[in-house]
Amino acid sequence: MKQTIHIIIFILFSNLLFAQNDSTKTKLSFNGDIRFRIEQDWNSRKSDGTYRDNRTRLRYRSRLGLTYDYKNWASAGIRIRTGDPKKQQDPHLTLGGSTNEFSSLPIAFEKLYVKFNRKWFTTCIGKNSFPFEKQNELFWSDNVYPEGISFSGFFTLKNNYIQSLQINTGHFIVNSSGSTLDADAYFQGIQLVTTHWQKRLKVFPSFYYFNDIPDIPDTNETSVLDYAILHIGTKATIIAKPKISIGLDYLHNIKNYNQNNTISEEFSDQKKGIVSSLNIGDLKKAGDWKIGFTYSYLERYAAVDYFAQNDWVRWDYSSQNSNDGRLTNFKGLEIMGAYALNKDMNLKVRFFTVDQLISYGTKTETGNRIRLDYNFSF
Hints:
The protein is mostly beta strands and 378 residues long. It has one helix at 2-18, and strands spanning 27-42, 55-71, 74-82, 93-94, 107-118, 121-127, 147-156, 164-175, 185-196, 201-214, 224-239, 244-253, 272-281, 289-298, 330-342, 345-356, 366-377. It has a single domain (2-377), classed as Porin (Beta Barrel), CATH 2.40.160.
């Protein structure tokens, strides 16, 4: 029933926009993508020393978005996607994975927002993409869309050392308390983004504060926790052709957990993370190729584990009645290769190998995974 309502709302909204008079100079645009994936998992050890079954899955994802440019300073957008609405980190579905034979697909809204843009200033209200600069999903997944309000200011500088300055900030509600805003579970962020070296170098220091975040997602929490995370990120293009770029992220949660009774002593100081990457090539036109290497070291409280990516390994909160991933407390390597069939289609293969830093049981958990994706966007 909910799926039907979502689709009806989407269609009605589209028809309403089409009905607008052309004299208002409005503009309507659609965008979307489809992904088909084959995935193999192996060597996935549990904390009790036993191994999960090796697993092969065929998966897919589809998204459809609509943007309405009311004026050159105001726009609105919505997007729907396939996927379990209870899994914000993962919109992919497994072929044959439904509980009923050939049942209909679950569909949910992942974006619904209004944006205002005047010269150097931009603000967005609603549910939209993570508004802060990032170069990977190890702190925040591309599939997690925060709800709240964001502000951004962009300034071009006539300076030999700094070519541009951007300031990003926002307030986002994780769980509403039904009372005052300060009683909500929320996160706030502020970020500076500067470009240097003829815009070939980008530096983006950030600070994120998370208030009363549940320790287990999907209303299964046993306690709540605050995070205060300092993030220093940088990426640079070393060579233009072929494009060779490097990236580095440093994360440090400066909250003191030594007096927190819900956190054991061995985890109380697990608050740092570092991610480094090397990428060669690009995927702008047919025949382009790209390879990449990413090393990640993320301690338990360097990020909120169920807001981060769930690509690298199979670990999740299923034993606590949640399907969301727990993707911190690990070190690992990703090797990626991609080939562009044209500007809208590409093939991408990714290999992951992961080891847990500190065990929750008698053994540290492990995991290997390889994926081949066919991506088509329109």
